[in-house]
Amino acid sequence: MTGKLMIAGGRPLRGTITISGAKNSAVALIPAAILAETSVVLDNLPRISDVGIYEEILTELGAVVTWDEDSMRIDPSSMKSIPMPNGNVKKLRASYYLMGAMLGRFGEATIGLPGGCNFEPRPIDQHIKGFEALGAEVSNEGGSIRIRARELRGAKIYLDVVSVGATINIMLAASRAKGITLIENAAKEPEIIDVATLLNSMGAKIKGAGTETIRIEGVDSMRGCRHSIIPDRIQAGSYMIAAAATRGDVLVDNVIPKHLEALTAKLQEMGVHIYEMDEAIRVVGQPEYESVDVKALVYPGFATDLQSPMTSLLTQAKGVSILSDFVYNNRFKHVPELVRMGAKIKVEGRSAVIEGGVLNAAKVKATDLRAGASLFIAGLTVPEGVTEITGTEYIYRGYENLVPNLRGLGAEIWVGEEE
Ligand code: EPZ
Predict the structure, then answer these.
(1) Is the pTM of this model over 0.85?
(2) Which domains does the chain show, CATH number per domain?
(3) Ligand 1 pocket check for 163: Cβ under 6 Å
(4) What is the 3-state secondary structure (H, E, C) of 170-206?
(5) What integer best gives the mean pLDDT of the chain?
(6) pLDDT tens-digit profile of 39-72?
(7) Beta bridge partner(s), residue 72
(8) Predicted local distance difference test score (pLDDT) of residue 357
(9) Atom 42 of ligand 1 has which residue's CA nearest to it?
(10) What is the 3-state secondary structure (H, E, C) of 273-300?
(11) Cα three-residue angle 19-261-345, rounded to 5 degrees
(12) For ligand 1, is residue 167 a contact (CB within 6 Å)?
């Protein structure tokens, strides 16, 4: 789906939204299947463009991929190791997981440097440090990373930066290394536990995922299995924020409330009413909100991926809020667009200083996925006129069925033709 998003805001969102499987798990679980010798079935996959691109990549590598509703069957038995310097790998950042998965299965990988949401330079030095520690030789050949190892050996790897991608990539390769790998200062995001759960079902021996030390005992072979993906906490959080921003009343269903604790606490601090159930969260918006300070940190802190959506909500609070991002240096490309909509926001170093006020309709552009989320949330709050959002290809990378979902909640949103 392409075309600009058109939103006539000012309507409270009301109803129930069911959250799909997590994008950031899916883009790691699909390449993880490369390590198996028989078919892996992934249930609860989101139908988003990143998943479609990964399906094409695996097919190019010789896997047989079939769908049954939201389940993907990947038969990796006839896969071959072929260099992938260009093409689809450039379209998504998470193509870097091909490095760890192909290294584990074939002992080699040549992968073009990944594309995706480029809101700031995002190095992969910790991934490379991990592969080298496992005994691989890594070189950069004309913009492609070439990795080779005669034999992968377990090692102790201390990550200088807490990185989700490096933690998962090292787990993938180390699952097939000889001996034991310890990842110290590992990332603790729920998606890491999800990948470890799949790998263990495939025969890997991984302990400690979700803590800062992960122990991986390498195995000689891995088999297929069936795995259901965790719900997308960022998609869920975005709808929670949208419900609060429009002063609506929304039941966000199929979530793991614990994954959203940092957001829930901040929303409550602002004055939003939240009711947690086993697998759902009800968000009841209020006429007025207090300003709050938010610090985006690694998990279990407030998610950086909800920082941009939260910026839009904070424009609806009384007084001045300060929102800081300690994961990325400069993830504020949404701010100039929100300013076009009348927001009073100044970026100072790693922080955005946000003064509450009413937003107005404008023509704005999404420059990355979560910047896009901040814009559709802002558009939903605008009391008069029509907000037009271009750059929607970024938004569809992470939000399955966005337009029908929001319409189902009572939003007046439609797709217009891009000029
Ligand atoms: C994952 O990216 C997510 N993407 C991102 O989600 C998310 O913003 C990020 O984790 C942080 O939570 C996927 O899972 C596909 P990192 P990742 O390595 O793994 C620095 C979204 O909107 N760093 O944890 O690539 C890096 O620059 C997206 O859904 C190094 O310096 O992020 C950043 O400042 C966007 N060297 C910080 O660490 C490295 O080798 C955290 O990055 C790796 C990372």
Answers:
(1) yes
(2) 4-20+231-416 (3.65.10.10), 23-228 (3.65.10.10)
(3) yes
(4) HHHHHCCCECEEEEECCCCCHHHHHHHHHHHHCCCEE
(5) 96
(6) 999 999 999 999 999 999 999 999 999 999 999 9
(7) 42, 67
(8) 96
(9) 163
(10) EEEECCCEEEEECCCCCECCEEEECCCC
(11) 90
(12) no
Pick from 25, 153, 19: which is nearest to 97 by CA? 25
Q: Region of 302 please: left (phi>0), alpha (psi -120 to 50) or beta.
A: beta
pLDDT over threshold 90, residue 417:
no
Q: What is the pLDDT of residues 182-224, one digit of tens each?
A: 999 999 999 999 999 999 999 999 999 999 999 999 999 999 9
As a whole number of angstroms, the distance between CA 250 and CA 239 comes to: 8
* CA pair distance 73, 199, nearest whole angstrom: 16
State both tokens at 74: 């990947």
Instruction: Answer yes or no: is the C-beta of 92 below 6 A from any ligand 1 atom.
Output: no
Query: Which residues are CB-contacts of 173 (< 8 A; sequence separation ≥ 6)?
Result: 99, 100, 101, 103, 104, 130, 131, 134, 136, 152
Residues with a known catalytic role: 117
List, edge to edge, every strand of the sheet that includes 226-228: 64-68, 71-75, 40-43, 226-228
pLDDT of residue 2: 74
- What is the DSSP pairing of strand 137-141 with strand 144-148? antiparallel
Instruction: Give kind and range of the element (H or E) at residue 14.
Output: strand 14-18
Amino acid at 267: L
Instruction: Answer whether residue 10 shows pLDDT above 90.
Output: yes
User: Which one, of 383, 345, 342, lies nearest residue 364 by Cα?
Assistant: 342
**Residue 54 neighbours by CB under 8 Å, 6+ apart:** 26, 27, 30, 31, 92, 94, 95
Give the strand pairing for 226-228 and 40-43.
parallel
CA of residue 163 to ligand 1 center, whole Å:
6
